[in-house]
Amino acid sequence: MPQGDKDKYTDKQERKAEHIEKSYERKGVSKKEAESRAWATVNKQSGGGNRTGGSGQKKSASSKEASRSDSAKQAAATRKAGSRSASLQDQTKDQLMAKARSKNIHGRSTMRKQELVNALRKAN
């Protein structure tokens, strides 16, 4: 693609550049400078001349499946680990209060949520 060739841009990118260019021209910028700034803006926002579809890397079906499987395993591990450490933090104050009541934690009625979490962790 020769420098300055706009064949690789989508219609949407071209419309956007035209709109930006007109805006700069209304502000008194020369036509050449306005066009230059408009295309620079489009390139920065969208990563250059992109045609929709087909420009990305191709992966084999088995590679995609392996990636999905790895991602699913990682997500499951994160959920499992998170449920242990953040389970008290994720509960409402009323739920924490009920647990504190069942464990007979003194002073629970005046505690804030974080104080209840800390007290319940100490109680375990």
TrEMBL record:
SUPFAM superfamilies given in the database record: Rho N-terminal domain-like
Name this polypeptide is given: Rho termination factor, N-terminal domain
An annotated GO BP: DNA-templated transcription termination
UniProt feature, compositional bias: Basic and acidic residues: 1-36
Coiled-coil annotated spans: none
Superkingdom of the organism of origin: Bacteria
A Pfam family it matches: Rho_N
